[in-house]
Task: inverse folding
């Protein structure tokens, strides 16, 4: 039998740098697997400043050979754990498109979009270009949307909050830089985004609730409070402190909006509600009352003044001069003349105008505006933004959908559009579409939400496009991981580690659950006098004192823990004779 022979590598003439072969003798009909391992170890990641940041994984292994020796023996158990996780999600009694959208977009976490530096901290681009990351700085107004990290990797989510409210929030003013310079010791960028900052406040509330860690909240509460107060600075987003954002609002459309609008307005309302609840827990009742007063006033004002009977609009109110704008708010994108600003939403029907409401639902904070107005708005997004076919649609910028494909446009203009609207208004981007779809699911518009998700997955079906790469500004774009919230909306899942409360929809079936520190399945069945519930953990532990499911409740005098090999089974009884 011929063997490979030693020879000098000559890549320039097509000769390989090296070759590897194994041999074995097989009997007739026999089979054998020949495993090959591709292993790497690159310790030298650098910032643009040429400061070495390193890669976290290299701290676990001395070199590539060490990685192979340590990982190869445990690969079967790692693969089994991964398969069990996927099976638990895929086996849930939920529509296939929702499970597929949630699972497939998780691949972004293992793409070049995301990385951990040597100190273990998690960072990300917005997406990946062909040769480099796309849009630097773990941009808060993009990463506000994704909902997978907090519910699967709670420690990583909390580390993001620690950076946002730690090194990136000025302790004196509350200004949060919405892009992070690395290394973190570098002077912060010093520019604030309205949606980025408000979303981080909402996520702080969510992550505190999921973890139940009171020390985590109290450690960062002073900075969280400052981040809210930053809205009220002279020339700020809400300088008159009426619960409505009117100032210069840089946002994820890469422009500055002037005047009250639904997208920033609902982010702000959600942040005020979250801050109210956190202030109560942090022993700051006066600030809680302030946040509640502003929320109530802002909510009433937006319903009364921005809702046009079909959806919420943007009332463009330009400043009289640049001098009226707090310097940190003007990033300089979108208006050569701030007194006559271009790139405004104006009276357009924006696809994700209810994003703040979606995150409020995820956190269990309730409705921010009138529920009937939310549902009417979502119906209008379907009416004015959805295209059954894009064959006759003229798109002025990037093409992420085309031809006979169905999609939601970024904005519809049924009443006429400005001469120069915000730049992306003709585009299609999945993270924004998922936002509308999840909103529909939360508001009981299940058929419409599922159709919207199905439209997206039909475009990323593996034939037309990579099913694991929903692109926006770059491949493997972070925003698309809001698709995970589709699972939350349909299962009604909400967990509070603070209260020990688990909430789910009162529907029969087996469903996946996760709170960032544990995951497993919940099986619900109608039983005499109530609802039989069985909680099973596949990994981690979750403590439960109270279970609620629309008309059913179960309570224990002490925390009960569900853990691998320790199921928690009980009957939730009907409340006031209500059954669904």
Result:
């Amino acid at each position: 039998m011929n063997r490979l022979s030693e020879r000098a590598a000559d890549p320039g003439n097509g000769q390989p740098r090296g070759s590897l072969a194994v041999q074995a003798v097989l009997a007739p009909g026999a089979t054998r697997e020949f495993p090959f391992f591709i292993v790497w170890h690159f310790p030298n990641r650098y910032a643009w400043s040429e400061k070495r940041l390193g890669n976290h994984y290299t701290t676990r292994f001395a070199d590539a050979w060490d990685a192979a020796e340590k990982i190869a023996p445990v690969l079967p158990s790692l693969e089994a754990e991964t398969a069990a996780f996927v099976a638990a999600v895929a086996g849930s009694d939920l529509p296939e498109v929702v499970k597929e959208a949630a699972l497939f977009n998780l691949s972004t976490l293992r793409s070049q979009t995301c990385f951990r530096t040597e100190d273990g901290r998690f960072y990300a681009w917005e997406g990946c270009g062909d040769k480099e990351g796309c849009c630097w700085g773990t941009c808060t107004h993009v990463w506000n949307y994704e909902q997978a990290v907090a519910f699967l990797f709670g420690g990583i989510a909390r580390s993001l909050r620690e950076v946002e409210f730690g090194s990136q929030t000025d302790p004196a003013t509350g200004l949060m830089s919405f892009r992070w310079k690395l290394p973190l010791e570098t002077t912060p960028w010093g520019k604030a985004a309205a949606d980025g900052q408000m979303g981080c406040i909402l996520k702080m509330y969510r992550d505190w609730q999921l973890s139940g860690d009171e020390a985590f909240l109290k450690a960062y509460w002073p900075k969280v409070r400052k981040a809210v107060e930053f809205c009220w600075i002279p020339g700020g987003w809400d300088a008159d402190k009426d619960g409505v954002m009117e100032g210069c609002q840089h946002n994820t459309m890469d422009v500055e909006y002037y005047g009250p609008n639904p997208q920033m307005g609902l982010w702000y309302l959600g942040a005020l509600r979250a801050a109210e609840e956190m202030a109560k827990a942090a022993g700051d009742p006066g600030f809680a009352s302030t946040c509640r007063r502003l929320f109530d006033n802002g909510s009433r004002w937006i319903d009364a003044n921005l809702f046009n009977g079909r959806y919420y609009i943007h009332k463009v109110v330009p400043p009289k001069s640049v001098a009226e704008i707090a310097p940190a708010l003007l990033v300089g994108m979108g208006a050569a003349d701030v007194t006559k600003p271009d790139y405004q939403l104006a009276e357009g029907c924006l696809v994700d105008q209810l994003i703040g409401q979606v995150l409020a639902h995820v956190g269990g904070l309730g409705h921010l505006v009138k529920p009937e107005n939310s549902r009417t708005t979502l119906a209008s997004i379907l009416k004015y933004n959805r295209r059954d076919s894009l064959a006759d649609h003229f798109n002025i910028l990037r093409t992420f959908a085309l031809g006979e494909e169905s999609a939601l446009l970024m904005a519809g203009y049924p009443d006429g559009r400005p001469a120069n609207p915000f730049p992306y208004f003709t585009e299609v981007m999945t993270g924004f579409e998922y936002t509308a779809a999840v909103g529909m699911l939360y508001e009981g518009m299940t058929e419409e939400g599922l159709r919207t998700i199905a439209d997206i997955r039909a475009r990323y079906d593996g034939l037309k496009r990579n099913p694991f790469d929903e692109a926006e500004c770059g491949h493997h774009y972070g925003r698309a991981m809001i698709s995970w919230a589709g699972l939350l909306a349909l299962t009604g899942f909400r967990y509070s580690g603070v209260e020990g409360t688990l909430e789910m929809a009162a529907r029969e079936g087996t469903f996946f659950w996760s709170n960032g520190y544990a995951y497993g399945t919940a099986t619900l069945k109608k039983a005499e006098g109530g609802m039989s519930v069985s909680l099973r953990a596949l990994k981690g532990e979750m403590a439960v004192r109270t279970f609620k499911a629309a008309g059913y409740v179960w309570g224990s005098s002490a925390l009960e823990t569900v853990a691998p090999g320790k199921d928690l089974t009980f009957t939730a009884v009907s409340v006031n004779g209500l059954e669904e």
